UniProtKB/TrEMBL annotation:
Keywords: Phosphotransferase system, Transferase. One of its GO terms (molecular function) is protein-N(PI)-phosphohistidine-sugar phosphotransferase activity. It comes from the Bacteria. GO terms for biological process: phosphoenolpyruvate-dependent sugar phosphotransferase system. InterPro entries: PTS_EIIB-like_sf (IPR036095), PTS_EIIB_2 (IPR013011), PTS_EIIB_2/3 (IPR003501). It holds the Pfam family PTS_IIB. This is Ascorbate-specific PTS system. PROSITE patterns: PTS_EIIB_TYPE_2 (PS51099). Residues 12-108 form the PTS EIIB type-2 domain.
Length: 108
């Protein structure tokens, strides 16, 4: 690679979980995707019920859930990260933390 070429970054995979997997996690997933797109951070987002995250551990890099549900997240393998948030409906309240996880671990 020459010094003028851009490095293509692999999209970070984010799984957003709530109690049912249909309400706040769906809304939060869309808002996270929109925010990261505006920041120029390649990502994919999906959502599910917190009880379903165990079967999807191979399909995400970061799991985002409410602080109240974060304790239900299984011990994650190395290279996977959990972000427990206070307000899933307003990603701007945790955007800095999410971007920090991405930049420090995936897009260095």
């Amino acid at each position: 690679m020459t010094s003028g070429q851009a490095v293509e970054q692999k999209p970070v995979r984010i799984l957003v979980c709530c109690g049912s997997g249909q309400g706040s996690s769906m809304m939060c997933s869309k808002k996270i995707k929109s925010y990261l797109d505006k920041q120029g951070i390649p990502s994919t987002t999906s959502n599910c019920a917190i009880t379903d995250h165990k079967s999807r551990v191979d399909s995400f890099d970061i799991i985002v859930t409410s602080v109240a549900l974060a304790e239900q997240v299984i011990e994650l393998p190395e290279g996977k990260f959990k972000l427990g948030v206070k307000n899933m409906i307003m990603p701007k309240t945790f955007a800095d933390d999410l971007v920090s996880i991405i930049k420090n671990n995936f897009h260095k």
